[in-house]
Amino acid sequence: MEAIFENATPNLSRLRPITGIKVEITGQPAASGCETEGGEGKASCGTSDGPDDMSPEVWEKVKNHPCYSEEAHHHYARMHVAVAPACNIQCNYCNRKYDCSNESRPGVVSQKLTPDQAVKKVIAVASEIPQMTVLGIAGPGDALASPDKTFETFRQLQEQAPDIKLCLSTNGLMLPDYVDEIAKYNVDHVTITINMIDAEVGEKIYPWIFYNHKRYYGREAAQILTDRQMLGLEMLTARGILTKINSVLIPGVNDKHLYEVNRAVKSRGAFLHNIMPLISEAEHGTVYGLTGQRGPSAQELKDVQDACMGGANLMRHCRQCRADAVGLLGEDRSDEFTLDQIEQMDVVYDLEKRRAYQETVEAERQAQHNAKHDALAAHAGADDGMKVLVAVATTGGGKVNEHFGHATEFQIFELTAASAMFVGHRRVDLYCQGGEGAEELLPSVVTAINDCHAVLVAKIGACPRDELKAAGIEPVDAYAHEFIEKAALTWFADYRSRVASGETFHIQRGDASIRQGAFMAA
Q1: What angle do CA 234, 235, 240 make, to 5 degrees?
Q2: Same structural domain, 393 and 327
Q3: Is residue 33 part of a domain?
Q4: Are residues 144 and 71 in the same domain?
Q5: What is the DSSP letter of 483?
Q6: Which of 119, 242, 244 is nearest to 194 (CA)?
Q7: pTM (two decimals)
Q8: Of the residues 284, 316, 342, which one is the last residue of a structural domain?
Q9: Which of 426, 370, 376, 433 is nearest to 406 (CA)?
Q10: Model confidence over 251-308: pLDDT tens digits?
Q11: Does 245 map to a domain?
């Protein structure tokens, strides 16, 4: 196995000393960025669902970005290119692996690419997947620890694929030094991983950082890192560059602290806050994995996300992608686009064809949007306070279109009389293998969704149907190939009617129904 971290090799001439950089966490910064009304139930930078509460300029940036818009992620694809191998910090939850096709998590790639190879791959993917609208550089190290490779890739793509949105992910240590260059290449979306704003918490996450020709350890390292992250975030906001904040939820380390992180990044103009579960299986070889640090349960993750409501807008549809992921969120088609395969492809980048295809995608998306609002209008009634979760099996397109036995994840929606809100996803073992149901896997699948009142599927066999019913989960295949929100709301209206008539007894499925084995991990 490779070492967890290779030596960081940034362009040291670009580094600046930390003297004088001390960002106060409390209070409002001078830069306001895209921030609008705050407070409970308000949006810090608008929502990712529609243009009504954001400027046309911001809406144009997020409308077909699958990470920045929950609605868009059903219809539009993204890809990452692994051109940035170096890293300048060590995280206890990270182990970057190469040539590893069997793991789906950040930092893992099958092929490291040069900028020329990366651009060639992007053009090939865009010609085959016209709904691919976003190109990101997310490692496998840190995009700004290999700045020459990162920005050369962006330079070429600006010229050869001008319609593709450009993104980068960074730990933020070098971010203040590269904001001008990020703006120069029209990188409109930057993700910063911010796990703490308190160095006492940070020293439990980061053993060391490498900055300004020197390695720093412990609390001093964490303080430098958080100061640089806050400064970089403020600088991006001042430039009108949208930011998404990734935070890894680590039980017992920063779970109680992420509320403070959420408020701090909101006050500095962050567009989205993505609170992700720690991936801590020992076989991944991370420090946390090898020392027994557990990841959060599905309920723990949702509880922290819910506690942050009213602060920075939350992203709940993240799939914690590999650094070479290709396709819709939740799928990975990177094995279709290896360098060897690309050499055999007849690649034609037809911009007009891509635009025409995306117009059809947008029409389908609008139909989904309309179906949701029609269902809300049709089933609106007195709010009885009932709130339930439902699991949905889908292959994409915003529809209930997956067989129960073929699902490797379920999307989770929270339903009330007035809303259908996506709140997360649950990865599960594939139940149907080789045309037969693997009965020994069924209990784990049921456990993963046992806080849900129903599971909506395109089709389901007799055995899992009976198992779900025994667990108090209603299997529903009556809405196959309908839009998710319409199907879910229609089922919920029927369920409420059955409860009101006494045909069905409503049981609140809350914390007590979440077993320790149910994880929302990628």
Answers
A1: 95
A2: no
A3: no
A4: yes
A5: B
A6: 244
A7: 0.74
A8: 342
A9: 433
A10: 999 999 999 999 999 999 999 999 999 988 787 778 898 889 999 988 899 899 989 9
A11: yes
